[in-house]
């Protein structure tokens, strides 16, 4: 229930506009004007054109009876049902955290370390951001707080080498999940993208016993822009899911839909603040209820 409260809170700003728009359709009846207003609201919440259109269809079809529950089940059905990262029993897992500068990679890596540790997993953090001067130091502070081991190398300029050292250490320490913080990059930084690819290759060729999972951090407040970021990253490297960060400060919580519908990238976690426990495992029912205000868990 605590999780439910958090996701509900994080969606407050998005819900305020979305549920207002539904309220106004309910009050004013279904008219072309009220529907258009609703569509505008859904689109400004970044739900995407296709989803907004489909929601209008559900409202029109069910306008005589309460349509909000129908909208709820429709939206739930549009999202992936299982979101946990399956931690393989036999293989060890390496979890790459990738994304554009400042989207929340380092913070999310720390939150994820904290989360998996709380599940009883043995976690190792790897600081493979060899570009930003203070990056290793930042991750060390987090590792300390979470109380997990860390591998980094302030002198190295080769993220692949740090990753190699990290997985070597993980093997000798019997680590379950190795979480790798990477440097921020835009898809247009060809060299940096090539380097990211190289990191995946290092795992595949040198540590074939590892299963790679990869999450992209997306700043929820960037809306459609984060959709572009995700597309570009997914064109270059494996992206299994997203951590939607900074949901606590935005009314644009709808990006979850186009992300899955258009790019097949499920949101797996939501970041709702700057602290270690400000990470929520994504659950489609809670998410949609938080969006529509159909749950009573405030
Ligand atoms: N409010 C809020 N702030 C967040 C969240 N996630 C990260 N931040 C903040 O966003 C800023 C950037 O976070 P970092 O984790 O350093 O981002 P990064 O992607 O590692 O940045 P670079 O390494 O420079 O590319 C920090 O001030 C974080 O505290 C979140 O879910 N909510
Ligand atoms: Mg960072």
Element-level helix/strand string:
HHHHHEHEHEHEHEHEHEEH
Return the structural class.
alpha/beta
Main beta sheet, described? 8 strands, mixed
Instruction: Give the mean pLDDT.
Output: 91
Give me the CATH superfamily of the largest domain: P-loop containing nucleotide triphosphate hydrolases
Cofactors and ligands present?
guanosine-5'-triphosphate, magnesium ion
Weakly predicted, low-confidence segments: none
CATH-defined architecture of the largest domain: 3-Layer(aba) Sandwich
Tally of DSSP helical segments: 12
Shape: elongated
Q: How many domains comprise the coordinates? A: 2
Q: Kindly provide the name of the CATH class of the largest domain.
A: Alpha Beta
Amount of beta strand: 15-25%
Distance between the termini: 11 Å
- Please give the order of strands in the largest beta sheet: 3-2-4-1-5-6-7-8
| CATH topology heading of the largest domain | Rossmann fold
Q: Would you count the extended β strands for me?
A: 8
Give the fraction of residues assigned to helices: 40-55%
Report the oligomer: single chain
Cα gyration radius (Å): 20 Å
Write up what this structure looks like.
The mean pLDDT is 91. Helix 4 packs antiparallel against helix 5 (68-77) and helix 6 (105-118) runs parallel beside helix 7. With 298 residues, this protein is α/β, with parallel strands linked by helices. Helix content is 50%, strand content 15%. It starts with a helix and ends in a 6-residue tail after the last helix. It has twelve helices and eight strands. A hairpin with a 7-residue loop joins strand 7 and strand 8 (279-281). Strands 3-2-4-1-5-6-7-8 form an eight-stranded mixed sheet, sandwiched between helices. The protein has two domains: 2-77, SRP54, nucleotide-binding domain (Four Helix Bundle (Hemerythrin (Met), subunit A), Up-down Bundle), CATH 1.20.120.140; 92-283, 3-Layer(aba) Sandwich (Rossmann fold). It has helices at residues 2-10, 12-28, 32-44, 49-61, 68-77, 105-118, 135-146, 159-173, 190-206, 224-236, 256-263, 284-292, and strands spanning 92-98, 123-128, 149-152, 177-182, 210-219, 241-245, 267-271, 279-281. The radius of gyration is 20 Å and the shape is elongated. Guanosine-5'-triphosphate is lined by residues 99, 101-107, 129, 132, 135, 184, 217, 245-246, 248-249, 271-274, 278.
């Amino acid at each position: 229930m605590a999780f439910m409260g958090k996701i509900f809170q994080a969606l407050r700003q998005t819900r305020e506009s979305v549920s207002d728009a539904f309220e106004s359709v309910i009050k004013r009846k279904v008219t072309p004007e009220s529907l258009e207003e609703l569509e505008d609201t859904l689109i400004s919440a970044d739900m995407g054109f296709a989803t907004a259109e489909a929601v209008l269809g559900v409202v029109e079809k069910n306008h005589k009876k309460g349509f909000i529950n129908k909208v709820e089940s429709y939206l739930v059905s549009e999202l992936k049902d299982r979101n946990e990262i399956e931690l393989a029993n036999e293989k060890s897992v390496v979890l790459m955290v990738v994304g554009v500068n400042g989207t929340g990679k380092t913070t999310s890596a720390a939150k994820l370390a904290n989360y998996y540790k709380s599940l009883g997993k043995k976690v190792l953090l790897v600081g493979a951001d060899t570009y930003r001067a203070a990056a290793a130091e930042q991750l060390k502070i987090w590792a300390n707080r979470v109380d997990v081991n860390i591998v980094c190398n302030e002198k190295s300029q080769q993220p692949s080498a740090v990753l190699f050292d990290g997985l070597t250490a993980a093997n000798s320490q019997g680590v379950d999940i190795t979480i790798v913080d990477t440097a921020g990059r835009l898809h247009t930084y060809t060299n940096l993208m090539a380097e990211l690819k190289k990191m995946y290759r290092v795992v595949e060729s040198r540590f074939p016993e590892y299963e790679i999972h990869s999450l992209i951090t997306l700043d929820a407040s960037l809306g459609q822009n984060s959709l572009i970021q995700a597309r570009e990253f997914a064109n270059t490297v494996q992206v299994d899911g997203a951590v939607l960060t900074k949901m606590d400060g935005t009314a644009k919580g709808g990006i979850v839909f186009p992300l899955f519908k258009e790019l097949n990238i499920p949101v797996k976690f939501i970041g709702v603040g700057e602290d270690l426990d400000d990470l929520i495992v994504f659950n489609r029912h809670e998410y949609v209820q938080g969006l529509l205000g159909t749950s009573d868990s405030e």
